[in-house]
Amino acid sequence: MYQEPLPKEYIDLPQEEIDRRIEAAKAKLGKRLVILGHHYQRDEIIRHADFRGDSYKLAKNAAAVPDAEFIVFCGVHFMAESADILTPASQKVILPNLAAGCSMADMANLFQVRNAWKQIHEIIGDSQRVVPVTYINSAANLKAFVGEHGGTVCTSTNAPTAVAWALEQGDKVFFFPDQHLGRNTGVKLGYDPNSQMILWDPFKPLGGNTPETIQSAKFILWKGHCSVHKRFTVEQIEKARREHPAVKVLVHPECELEVIKAADLNGSTEFILTKITESEPGSIWAVGTEINLVSRLAKEQPDKTIFCLDPEICPCSTMYRIHPSFLLWTLENLVEGTVVNHIVVPDKIRDDALVALQRMLTVCA
Ligand code: SF4
Fold first, then answer.
1. Which of 36, 223, 243, 321 has the fewest CB atoms in 10 Å of its CB?
2. Residue with the nearest Cα to atom 5 of ligand 1?
3. Does the beta carbon of 290 lie inside 6 Å of ligand 1?
């Protein structure tokens, strides 16, 4: 989405002044304000957050503070939408920079997904039931599509439960937008990635498949990926093992299947945090996820060796658009009584998306 440039008085402010003014605005707004900080945000944002978490945990945090009138979500667009869906209309969810999207979520849009759904059903007719499952990293209108078509949302934590449920309801799963989470989940459940899964490329007729493979596939995986987690490789894991024979390699399930296989463990951001936090002093961790989270873990737990698998810095560039100046601009506007960057999911989309989110809560409880 388009973001108006910041007013010039917010450009090039020294960090100490930004911190001081953010804290002053927070003090003025008091309990009317809650700031949520995704784990992938930089330290200069996280230090002002009332809650830290992954996207789903933060949306639940927002719903757990009904007195807060303003929820400032320091994350990306789909996360602010989820928070708006899960909170009452009296709470206003705000994204400090509208340009903070998610490149993975942007790889599937409603038009493309509807088109794929139609093509799949032209091939299979009424002979099989397809259950759509969308990763929480998707636009609200895709969650609504899933709600309308009897499917569910999933997170990287509960994907195996959600997908197993979907396969009990129907014959096939249509999983979007992250092919890797879909494939890794299918493999975890015992399915063969070569003979039982196909990739759907939205830019090709029939997604680049034949009618026969569409008929026989158990998993139809959308051709989407996370640009951060795609950077991790088996070679990096081999290097980490050569240099640190006692290392444990822990990666996110948005990584490619080969990387998942070569790692010791894989799991969501919250899983990564818990696993490392609970490990013995002196343990060594090579982590395949976003650099801000890994660096913070290393700083906060100096009794362990914690490093990112990718030697090049690999921040999530869209998360990085939440610059502290945008947070300051948002808060000072609220103090003045102006709500900027209010994220509102239209009612019809909200209702159907809520069905899909509630289904996830029931299925994965
Ligand atoms: S890390 Fe990947 S999936 Fe997460 S917000 Fe950034 S681009 Fe999207």
1. 243
2. 102
3. yes
